[in-house]
Amino acid sequence: MDDDIDPTASPGLLERLEQGPVICAEGYLFELERRGYLQAGAFVPEVVLEHPELVAQLHREFVHAGSDVVEAFTYYAHREKLRLIGKEHLLETMNRSALELARGVAQETGALFAGDICNTNVFVADAASRAAAHAMFDEQVGWAAEAGADFVIGETFSWGEEALIALESIKAAGLTAVITLAIHQEPSTRDGWTPEDACKRLEDAGADVVGLNCIRGPKTMLPLIRAVRERVDGHVAALPVPYRTHDEQPTFQSLRDPDYEGLPGGRPFPTALDPFTCNRYELADFAREAKEIGVTYFGVCCGAAPHHIRSVAEALGRRPPASSYTADMSKHAFLGTDSTLKQEYQEYADRL
Ligand SMILES: [Zn+2]
What we know:
Strand order of the largest sheet: 1-8-7-6-5-4-3-2
Strand content: 5-15%
Mean pLDDT: 96
Number of strands: 8
Largest sheet: 8 strands, parallel
Bound molecules: zinc ion
Order of helices and strands: HEHHHEHHEHEHEHEHEHEHH
């Protein structure tokens, strides 16, 4: 590694974290699925090759809404996922294209450019799967490093050990690492580690930011984040899904919908979560509470839309470009307060 610091270089993730909170919009799979360009089930980001302009546009929308990071859409663009759909030959092209798209939007907007790796779905904590996961991480991290990523996100690991292996790959490439764990109904990793112990191990092994993402909504993630914050010394990340999870159904996979019986598979996950979606104000509440706990790296995962990101940004005192369009009801014909509005309309407001 070259230790010379380039004075013209823009600040990296750690410099930005020293200056204040960093926001990273996630949730590309769900958003592009909703828009009709990605198939739920296998969940492979083929849209990167099929409709690259839409991926670039979504990157832009998230930055416009307040994301400080453009996260390359390489989530699930790994060897096991591509094997499953019979397209392993597209692995490298898909990764390099996704990285190129993210790099382009980061350059255009001044946002940070992040590579991304995630759970391999082959790891089962034995020697063979350790080696397989390591090789999968190495190839994806290698492409991210070659593309010039500012840092690499390793996310949604339900095995602490798999997260440690991902971290090892990122650190071997000399890159800054953000590692976030996915905590399912049991409040522990699949290795049986508490989230705070797992995060502590990751921090001790060199992770620059540790925390949790995906799976849990704000209400059921924040108590775990509080424990993580108490246990680790460095930066803590919290990126919940924007769904109303609660004590009895703490994950978005465990949510059940008493108001609709026709769900394929019997559960709202992953294509019928709409009635559980948090509103933008709940995301603002989340951001404020997480900040109070001591979180410094914020975001929203599967289910996130730009209005959620804008709310997080505004709750943290930011005013991203999308804030020009933040609601101002004073000029609403019936509900507004503007003195030039017809009084008859305001009087009718209660009958709307
Ligand atoms: Zn997610």
